[in-house]
Design a protein that fits this description.
Elements (H helix, E strand, L loop, with lengths): L7 H5 L8 E4 L9 H10 L4 E4 L11 H5 L3 E6 L6 H8 L4 E4 L2 H12 L4 E4 L13 E4 L2 E7 L5 E10 L4 E2 L8 H6 L4 E9 L18 E4 L20
Parallel strand pairs: 1-2, 1-8, 2-3, 3-4, 8-10, 10-11
Antiparallel strand pairs: 5-7, 6-7, 8-9
Amino acid sequence: MGKVYPDATAAMAGVLRDGMTILAGGFGLCGIPATLIDAIVASGVKDLTVVSNNCGIDDVGLGKLLRTRQIRKMVASYVGENGEFERQFIAGELEVEFNPQGTLAERVRAGGAGIPAFYTKTGVGTAIAEGKPTAVFDGETYVQERGIVGDLAIVHAWMGDTEGNLVYRRTARNFNPVMASAARMTVAQVEHLVPAGEIDPDHIITPGIYVKRICQVPAGYEKLIEKRTVRPRETA
């Protein structure tokens, strides 16, 4: 079988366990690994720490894992579209670690690059910096942030080959490449699965060395839009 699995359930088999840290790619509802998330929901694993830009919306994407109470801690930069997230957080039922968006991206990138910590000016003098080491460089104060490494990364790509090389499309590229590089195991769902060698090497964004398992999303896979904003059509 190699790296290719027939569906998301098979791709996640033997990978999941209670208490693990999962890195999830995507931005809003764009480029989220929705099929893999559904497989995690169905598995019933719990006490998860999930690292993602956001937590989806109610009952969509990672929001499904919130609904089933499988997430213990959420590490994110934005969660404003999820009412259940707000409710659980205010009720003290969900542990939350907020990060400035660029800091979160860099923490994950650093983890994938083997960098345990770095310094940034973002958050200095705010609640973000509380309890964290600081240092002065060239007369300016910086706060130390730790790199993030996950047990599992789940990502969505537009195209992948049987060796796990991935190509992302437009906004769906956000967070997926860094997540794929920063976990002990990466599982990818792809819209188009092609034989090895069919992707131009110059177009590969995530090399297959990072990806352990891959599956193709099922026919009829629906890409949801978080908020649709369009101009009124001009009359002829």
